[in-house]
From TrEMBL:
Any Pfam family: DUF7347
Organism for this UniProt entry: Natrinema halophilum
Domain spans labelled DUF7347: 12-89
The protein's name in its UniProt record: Winged helix-turn-helix transcriptional regulator
Residue intervals of the DUF7351 domain: 108-279
Domain of life: Archaea
Length: 286
């Protein structure tokens, strides 16, 4: 385990490096031909040429500032670091300079509380699905890059967001942050588990990843759970809020064991999880 020490640049220092025309030109030249692991390094002369500089002293000074943080020297020249390619990808994905006005749009799903049409909104990088009529349903909200709207209509965006959330949440529940690969912690309140509206919270200890999800939603990417739900007639192609709400009960507090019972059209599935929401066993009764 490594921790940030005094010699490691902070986020502030890393961002401040970008605030210079020549350094930006160097990075953009490196990112221009970037092809992930297949990237050919750019030679010193080529890079200097791409930036349009004649003064090697000045060029060197700025290249040196970027070294380690955003630029790595390899055998045949220079390549961008993972920090700057991640930043680049984020900017492409979230299109921060474009405005996307998105009026609430009805999708092919109904509110689970009142059966009115569900609508999709987009705000500050989050897709939200909510009821067009009532306030009884908390709805569904998850971050979704603006770029995801480029080739999709509202129904397709809703499906893509749900798939994305399931994938991320499944990963985070099993210990890995989908954004920074750091460790995650699952928090469930064992005192109030019987409630219908129980949420579990999954948080990353490094970056800002934090989600509150319904218990079953966090388990859908587990193969045993998915198999059992399919066996009892629960269609996982449906939106999360269209799936049955499981009955939950605490089996024991020490060690923490929680049972979820899910009723499908062809029987019921019983999922046993521990206090970190790791799946202990899955059985079906058809
Ligand atoms: Zn409603
Ligand atoms: Zn993280």
């Amino acid at each position: 385990m490594t921790t940030a020490d005094e010699s490691e640049p902070t986020a502030r220092e890393a961002f401040s490096l970008l605030g210079h025309e020549i350094r930006l030109e160097i990075l953009l030249a490196l990112l221009d031909g970037w092809r992930a692991v297949y990237t050919d390094p750019r030679s010193y002369a080529d890079l200097m040429d791409a930036v349009g500089m004649r003064d090697s002293g000045k060029f060197n000074y700025h290249l040196d500032k970027l070294r380690g943080v955003y630029v790595r020297e390899v055998e045949d020249g220079y390549v961008p670091t993972a920090s700057v390619t991640a930043l680049y990808r984020s900017v492409l994905a979230h299109r921060p300079t474009e405005r996307t006005e998105y009026d609430p749009t009805a999708i092919d799903s109904d509110c689970p509380r009142c059966d009115a049409k569900a609508v999709l909104r987009y705000n500050r990088g989050f897709v939200s699905i909510e009821c067009s009529a009532c306030d009884d349903w908390a709805g569904f909200t998850y971050p979704f890059p603006k770029n995801g709207f480029e080739t999709r209509n509202a129904d397709a965006v809703a499906r893509a967001t749900v798939r994305r959330a399931r994938h991320h949440i499944g990963m985070a529940r099993t210990g890995q942050c989908p954004f920074c690969a750091g460790g995650t912690a699952v928090d469930i309140d064992l005192e109030t588990t019987a409630a219908d509206d129980q949420m579990i919270e999954i948080a990353c200890d490094t970056c800002t990843f934090l989600v509150g999800v319904e218990p079953l939603q966090s388990l859908l990417t587990d193969n045993r759970v998915a198999g059992a739900l399919a066996d009892v007639g629960v269609d996982l192609e449906r939106y999360d809020w269209e799936l049955p709400t499981p009955a939950m009960r605490i089996k024991s507090r020490d060690p923490g064991r929680v049972v979820l019972e899910v009723d499908g059209e062809m029987g019921s599935a019983t999922i046993l999880v521990d206090e970190t929401f790791s799946v202990r066993s899955v059985t079906t009764d058809r």
